[in-house]
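Hey, I was hoping to borrow your eyes for a little while. No rush at all, and the record is pasted right below.
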Amino acid sequence: MRVAILGYYGSGNLGDEAVLWAMLEHLREASGDLEACVVSADPTRTEAVHGVPAVRRTDAFAVRRRFRACDVVCSGGGSLFQDVTSWRTPLFYAWLHELAAGRPLVVYAQGVGPLRRPLSRWVTRRAMDRAARVTVRDPESAETLQQLGVRNPPEVVCDPTLGLVPDRVVAGGQALVACVRAWPGAWQEAVARAVGDVARERGLAVHVLCMHPELDAPVSVEVARALGAEVLFPRRPQEALDALQEARAVVGMRLHALALAATAGVPFVGLSYDPKVRSLARALDQPYLDLSGLRSELLGQAVRHVLDDASAAERLRRKVQPLRGLAREPARIAVELGRSA
């Protein structure tokens, strides 16, 4: 089974690399004979981290050749069709969908939106209509596509990382882990104060986990200095998961830091700078606070509540367990389409 995978890979964002890690695992399970190739911003990095061939995503000739040689193209996961980071983002991924013309295309557990510009909405609808099947990671993404009037009804699954199974279970970690990202606003002091106060009260170590060093290193260092804490810079998604498994609780902005914590049964408090964080927290019955206007007192209360709930970790594991099969559904769909192509 020859599969091409496109997405935001090779750019140093461990969240997206964790998504790719999960996708490759699930596609291998579903196919039994996977030959994968990844469309990447940095093919050398992708090949080193994941052990699969990769092509540069701006090389239209190489990408098109790989697409033609495969049985099915997987678009995603991650948040590819949104225009918060740049108005160019949905246009770029729509272009990649155009290059996949003639091969079965599966939209793979994507998060869609926000789409604030008419052009973004138009190109997203056109790109989605090129897909044979459309799967999304949350109901909000499905609603966005329905409002756009896409031809194929979106199927709600969940983020692929929720299907990862840690190779060990760590109970009762002794650290409070914070994961922040570059984002406008004066929220850093509130996060540092709340995390620091609770950690001192409970005798917990504090770590700041940086999931995307190219963007998040400055703010991670800033928050860590205020906490007198160490910044962790994992190089691979497995290392990020290992660090999160040592936590008693996680306070996080990065979506996939929270998703990886959930797979390890570590409760979290989400800091919602984007609807996708709120959506994940709601799906897993975890507390969250809006980053805008964040107050350290409210965040401290939320973290204390999580730490004081003796059954929080077990409830989270029970919540994640049925999602492991749902996380594998897009892989099953992709293999089915590829076999029948």
